[in-house]
Design brief:
Helix 6 runs parallel beside helix 7 and helix 9 packs across helix 10. The protein has ten helices and eight strands. It is globular and about 50 Å long. The chain has one domain: TIM Barrel (Alpha-Beta Barrel). The chain binds zinc ion (ZN).
Length: 283
């Protein structure tokens, strides 16, 4: 009984604050939101970015960010929902992005694994939302699954015009797409998948990616990291993901976290330099 409880280690605490760069707070049971935010703050999660996916949650994301000082958001339509995209939805994305707490266009992209929307529609809707980011100077949050070639072909047409680039979140694509995106100055986002036993390819990409281009995310409520796999996910598990990435990169966790923190600010909060961190200031 109590032995089973103690088999899961407590969430480790680090000195470096952490930014959750990709989660879906509106998918949590509403009665769990307060507790999720409180526990996240307690373990050092300083800012949380909750991601829009559909016409039905654009306003929900806005409201979450307006109601909670540590929460920011994005506006965009997920490839699964591409067939719901209309000029009216595009106009709502643009007007939502006028809110200072909406940081990026996303999540947008291609998902040829599930094919919930036709591939041709996914491509068009991805391109149209990239154009919104270009026109308004926003970064992008990209979802790509089993669509490496088409994602690259589309990014080749837009990357040069995207002044603030963006992140390929939950990166599970091949090394070739990773190298292309890194070369273009995009960030790669990693989550609990990195902790899974069979995720050898993801860890190979983490090894290859410079510390300066890595972001941390949970993709809550999905993809709970080891050692809590099977439990509901929350941004409060990010320290485990930081630990895992540090192990893969063969550096200490504070170093990994410090890079991830600076990277998160560089991409999403360029006007708010992060608070001074690191131990070398006192001499
Ligand atoms: Zn997502």
């Amino acid at each position: 009984m109590s032995r089973k409880k103690s088999s899961r280690p407590p969430i480790p605490r680090f000195n470096t604050p952490i930014v959750e760069t990709h989660c879906h707070l509106d998918y949590l049971p509403p009665e769990e939101l307060g507790q999720t935010l409180a526990l996240s703050a307690e373990v050092g999660i300083e800012r949380i970015i909750t991601i829009a996916v559909s016409p039905g949650n654009l306003d929900t994301v806005l409201a979450l960010a307006q109601d909670h000082s540590q929460v920011w958001g994005t506006q965009g339509i997920h490839p699964h929902e591409a067939e719901t995209y209309t000029t009216g939805v595009a106009a709502r994305i643009v007007s939502g992005l006028a809110d200072q707490r909406m940081l990026a266009v996303g999540e947008i992209g291609l998902d040829y694994h599930y094919d919930h929307s036709s591939r041709a529609v996914q491509r068009t809707v991805f391109e149209q939302q990239l154009q919104i980011a270009v026109d308004h100077g926003h970064p992008v949050v990209i979802h790509t699954r089993d669509a490496d070639a088409d994602t690259r072909a589309i990014l080749e047409n837009f990357s040069g015009k995207l002044t603030r680039k963006g992140v390929i979140h939950s990166f599970t694509s091949g090394m070739e797409l990773a190298e292309y995106c890194l070369g273009e100055g995009f960030y790669l986002g990693f989550n609990g998948i990195a902790t899974f036993n069979n995720a050898h390819q993801v860890r190979a990409v983490i090894e290859a990616a410079p510390l300066q281009q890595i972001l941390l995310e949970t993709d809550t409520p999905y993809l709970t990291p080891v050692p809590y796999r099977g439990k509901p996910n929350g941004p409060f598990y990010l320290p485990f993901i930081g630990q895992c990435l540090a192990r893969v990169k063969n550096c200490d966790t504070e170093t990994l976290l410090e890079h991830a923190y600076q990277n998160s600010y560089r991409l999403f909060f360029p006007d708010n330099p992060p608070r001074q961190i690191g131990g070398n200031v006192t001499g």
